[in-house]
Amino acid sequence: MRVSVMQMSPIADKAANIDQASRLIAAAIAADRPDVISLPEMWTCLGGNRATKHEQAETLPAYGSNEPGGAAYEFLRGIARSQRIQVHGGSLGEKDGERLFNTTVVFDPDGTEIARYRKIHMFDIVAPDGKGYRESAVYGAGKDVVTYEQNGVKVGCAICYDVRFPELFLALRRAGAELIFLPSAFTVPTGKDHWEVLIRARAIETQCWIAAAATTGKHIDGSGEPRFTYGHSLLCDPWGHVVAKASDGIGWATARIDQALTERVRRDMPVLEHRKLV
Question: What is the model's pTM?
Fold first, then answer.
């Protein structure tokens, strides 16, 4: 199974972001013929103030209803159907009444939604450059651990800041995950020091493949201040090797998920069976 992770530079304009995603996905499919593509975190609207985020967010159809959704939702579904591939939608702003959630949706090649995950851990920190982030001021936190199946591979869902919480990744492994998607919008100050090492650590601990599509470049926050995300979208194998990585700027990375490697790593070092404390 070939997986491509898209690296985008989104802004607070959903229509422009959909156009960027459309062109990028078309190029990746033409070049690499993936079975699965993933977009990054909040690729539909990165930046802007609270009102903008509410405006760009979408009310999702009831899960399993197959009813029509908003522009980004239908764009993802259309890619899946027209290209006959699975689409992991990164994450988008989900409107649920007056609340917003940072939410992943996944579509099979028929365009049927097969998974939905709300980001659990909110990014409420002060970065090394002194800039503060308070995701919980806009978004609610999810609570459910989510897995699904693709081409015989059990897949787990996580988003960005979730990577700092190994207990979630252990829960995904215990639920049977072999591949974990981690769409992200990592800041430059944290990304340059922690992005790759955290992903490699989670891969080694869980003995899972990790596919991490990320945003890159500049966007403008609600106060008009420029913010920069790190990019470096990558795929990591269960031994902790980075097997594909995007260059700086808009682009993508592709790798083949090898279940035989997963089986070998888990057989030769059965860490899940050896765990005693949790």
Answer: 0.97
H or E element that contains 19? helix 14-32
pLDDT tens-place string over residues 33-42 = 999 999 999 9
Q: Is the pLDDT of residue 278 over 70?
A: no
**Which one of 45, 160, 208, 236 is the catalytic residue?**
160
- In the set 14, 53, 95, 119, the catalytic residue is 119
* Residue closest to 175 by CA, chosen among 204, 213, 144: 144
188-197 b/e (C-beta count within 10 Å ≥ 16 → b):
bebbeebbbe
Q: 157 catalytic, yes or no? A: no
User: How high is the pLDDT of residue 98?
Assistant: 87
- Report the chain's terminal Cα–Cα distance, integer Å: 32
* Number of domains into which the chain is organized: 1
Catalytic residue check, 119: yes
Angle CA 212–213–218, to nearest 5: 130
Angle at 132 between CA 127 and CA 136, to 5 degrees: 115
Residue 249's domain comprises 2-274
205 flagged as catalytic = no
3-state secondary structure of 229: strand
Domain of residue 120, CATH code? 3.60.110.10
Do 22 and 3 meet the contact criterion of CB atoms below 8 Å apart? no
Residue closest to 104 by CA, chosen among 264, 213, 257: 213
